[in-house]
Q: What sequence folds into this?
């Protein structure tokens, strides 16, 4: 279909923004039946408007989709728009209108009593954030002489004070974690954005008209340029030494399986149950500290030496090592739970028997056509594209709503599936298996000395024995 | 929002990457003929500087980003255009950068060399690419340059200006003139007008962009310094006499200008001796916060068509900012491909 003939594509957010955006769209006579109601469908028509298609994405994916030209218009948080534009200013996103929808403010936070000036003066400042480009922009303007950015998947606010000096994170999350706000980094906001080329060359008025009538915000939000600190480069901050054994356990989908694996091994962390959300559960051993965090961020935290053990997934370990092959983190024990297959997923409608045949089909009319590979595991998608010799390809990092990408927004999805049910429901199939993932125990490549090393060996032995017994 | 509507945008395509052939944007090949010219210019550069006692060094293409992020190195605006990324050790949170500036890399080399017991005075030269994002034009620029560490300011400035003039003469560059300025002079004047360091940078950039309004606004807010500000920003001097006039206009209200004016007078005398015409401006260098003293650019041609062949200046605080011993330092560099074009 030519660009001129295809429908006007509008990307709208799911999650917390779905309700306020859906309400305003309905009030502006731009109603996509099912969107406001939280339908699990990814694509919607617009009631009474011909030639317009609405697609639901995770908020943070929308600026990328609009920048790529896959969507003509989008509504997204100012933080995610600026996370793209602050680094890629030449990109093809045009901010059109700030909407009167509350968006999260980003702040820089540390432990109560902390001071940005003192931290900057004292040596290397470790900063955890989901927004590395905005953080880089802020910290260079603040003139922090030397900093390290920990680019985490989520819950950056959980890193200070033990695992980082600072977090740059949403204000509400920081408050919940009990951190002190030390400065505002981004004033938030929600924006209507457009692809520059689409604005210049296509008639978008069927969607643009009603969307430009959405109520406008009184303030534009956006990046904050902090006044520079007068800090000079300090001496290296000494690495914190610790005596206590630290173990990280996951929240989210993996929590239930981990609770069961620990119980089988006779290990109890009161407060860490299948449905609890305590950050620091207890341990009956006073020399053991337990922390709940996202399994995606565990390989980095272990490599950094923050934890002696962590229970994560093999998928996340492999994704981390695909990006940083020399990172000192290894799998110590397979817990054999939470088993699923990770692989290359394509449309069920493609009449092919292998990924090679699929590539040949996609490139039948245009040998230079780039193959789009979408995945939450961007490093694994990149590794797959390289090793399977996809030739010219483009990795599209995504953060959710993944089953909706193929075939319209990507040719291949790198995705995990336990039973295949969700894939089949979305007319998808796995054509190439990359790996089998289970949850596993990971640790630093160099075992710690002394009591911590002995405790690590004991925990691994107990967890391994329990896993083998269950299998 | 940060979108910049003034820069060129690649066309978006439906499910297709922009077709740039097999080139990465901003990068270019050098064919045999261009390489021959490149090597000729490079040889003349190395002959000229080695004859003056400058020894060639080579620093890595990849450096830690933190070398460039501290105040007194690159400006935040310049940092937005560097190629920084996470390499295989990036799990530690440390970013690396493709060398965006050769002077900072050379200063890092000097700090390491002195720490390892090397001489406190060093004359070094380099030929190396630097990488900075540009919406149009080259993103990889081959620079040749020299750095002089440890020599007293007046002597060092004079030596470098004379060396640059001699190199360009040997290269066969014609119609060359110099723009001179002093970073410390502008800073002292702005500071006396009550501007914070951040406001000084902003006003300096506006002045470089030719915004006469910034001077006028400052002059009206600080009438006691109006004459000095207007003379500094509004009149381009062409002789040592102009520097004397600045002295008369500024010193009563900006006593800190005395040292910078002495430096400028010394630089002007060196150019007089080398027979190179010059003019004295308020500012010549942007995006490089490390400049602390005389700055200069050797240009070819008149204003509208002028192109900079060599730029440089004094940066006494840089080695200290990088964690090394404090040392007076100055240097200059030029785009070797551009220099190859003007070589006779």
A:
């Amino acid at each position: 279909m030519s660009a001129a003939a295809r429908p006007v594509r509008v990307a709208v957010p799911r999650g917390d923004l779905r309700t306020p955006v859906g309400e305003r769209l309905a009030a502006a006579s731009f109603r996509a039946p099912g969107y406001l109601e939280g339908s699990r469908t990814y694509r919607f028509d617009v009631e009474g408007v011909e030639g317009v298609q609405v697609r639901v994405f995770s908020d943070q994916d929308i600026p990328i989709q609009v920048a790529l030209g896959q969507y003509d218009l989008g509504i997204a948080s100012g933080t995610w728009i600026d996370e793209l534009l602050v680094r890629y200013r030449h990109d093809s996103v045009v901010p059109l209108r700030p909407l009167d929808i509350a968006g999260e403010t980003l702040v820089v936070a540390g432990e109560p009593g902390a001071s940005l000036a003192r931290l900057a003066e004292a040596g290397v400042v470790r900063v955890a954030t989901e927004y590395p480009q905005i953080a880089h922009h802020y910290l260079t303007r603040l003139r922090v002489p030397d900093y390290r950015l920990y680019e985490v998947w989520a819950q950056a606010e959980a890193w200070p004070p033990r695992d980082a000096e600072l977090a740059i994170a949403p204000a509400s999350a920081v408050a919940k974690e009990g951190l002190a706000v030390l400065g505002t980094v981004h004033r938030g906001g929600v924006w209507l954005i457009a692809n520059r080329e689409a604005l210049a060359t296509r008639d978008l008025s069927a969607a643009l008209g009603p969307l430009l009538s959405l109520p406008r915000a009184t303030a534009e939000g956006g990046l904050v340029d902090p006044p520079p600190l007068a800090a000079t480069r300090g001496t290296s901050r000494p690495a914190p030494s610790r005596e206590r054994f630290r173990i990280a356990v996951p929240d989210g989908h993996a929590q239930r399986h981990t609770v069961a694996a620990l119980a089988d091994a006779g290990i109890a962390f009161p407060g860490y149950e299948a449905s609890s959300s305590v950050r620091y559960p207890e341990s009956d051993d006073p020399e053991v500290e337990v922390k709940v965090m996202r399994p995606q961020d565990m390989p980095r935290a272990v490599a950094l030496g923050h934890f002696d053990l962590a229970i994560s997934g093999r998928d996340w370990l492999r994704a981390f090592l695909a990006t940083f092959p020399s990172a000192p983190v290894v799998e110590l024990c397979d817990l054999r739970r939470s088993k699923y297959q990770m692989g290359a997923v394509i449309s069920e409608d493609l009449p092919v028997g292998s990924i090679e045949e699929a590539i040949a089909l996609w490139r039948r009319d245009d040998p230079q056509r780039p193959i789009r590979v979408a995945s939450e595991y961007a490093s694994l998608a990149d590794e797959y594209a390289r090793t399977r010799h996809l030739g010219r390809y483009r990795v599209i990092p995504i953060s959710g709503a993944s089953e909706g990408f193929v075939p319209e927004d990507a040719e291949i999805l790198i995705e995990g599936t336990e039973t295949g049910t969700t894939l089949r429901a979305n007319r998808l199939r796995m054509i190439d298996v990359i790996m089998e993932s289970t949850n596993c125990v990971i640790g630093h490549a160099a075992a710690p000395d002394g009591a911590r090393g002995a405790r690590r060996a004991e925990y691994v032995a107990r967890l391994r024995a329990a896993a083998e017994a269950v299998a | 929002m940060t979108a910049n509507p003034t820069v060129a945008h690649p066309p978006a395509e439906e499910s297709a990457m922009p077709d740039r052939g097999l080139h990465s944007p901003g990068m270019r090949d050098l064919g045999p003929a261009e390489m021959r010219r490149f090597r000729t210019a490079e040889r003349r550069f190395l002959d000229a500087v080695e004859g003056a006692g400058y020894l060639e060094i080579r620093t890595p293409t990849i450096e830690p980003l933190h070398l460039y992020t501290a105040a007194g190195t690159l400006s935040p605006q310049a940092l937005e255009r560097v190629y920084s990324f996470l390499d295989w050790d990036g799990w530690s949170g440390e970013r690396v950068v493709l060398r965006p500036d050769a002077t900072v890399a050379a200063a890092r080399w000097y700090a390491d060399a002195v720490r390892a017991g090397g001489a406190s005075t060093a004359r070094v030269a380099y030929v190396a690419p630097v990488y900075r994002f540009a919406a149009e034009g080259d993103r990889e620029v081959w620079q040749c340059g020299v750095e002089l560490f440890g020599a007293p300011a007046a002597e060092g400035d004079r030596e470098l200006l004379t060396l640059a003039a001699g190199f360009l003469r040997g290269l066969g560059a014609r119609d060359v003139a110099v723009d001179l300025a002093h970073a410390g002079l502008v800073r002292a004047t702005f500071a006396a007008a009550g501007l914070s360091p951040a406001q000084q940078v902003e006003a300096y950039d506006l002045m470089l962009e030719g915004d006469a309004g910034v001077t006028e606004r400052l002059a009206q807010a600080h009438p006691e310094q109006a004459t000095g500000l207007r003379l500094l920003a509004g009149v381009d001097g062409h002789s040592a006499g102009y520097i004397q006039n600045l002295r008369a206009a500024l010193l009563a209200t900006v006593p800190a200008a005395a040292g910078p004016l002495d430096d400028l007078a010394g630089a002007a005398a060196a150019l007089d001796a080398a027979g190179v015409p010059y003019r004295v401006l308020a500012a010549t260098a942007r995006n490089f916060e490390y400049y602390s003293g005389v700055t200069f650019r050797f240009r070819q041609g008149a204003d509208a068509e002028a192109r900079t062949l060599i730029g440089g200046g004094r940066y006494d605080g840089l080695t200290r900012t990088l964690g090394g011993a404090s040392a007076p330092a100055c240097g200059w560099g030029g785009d070797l491909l551009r220099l190859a074009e003007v070589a006779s």
In short: The mean pLDDT of chain B is 86.
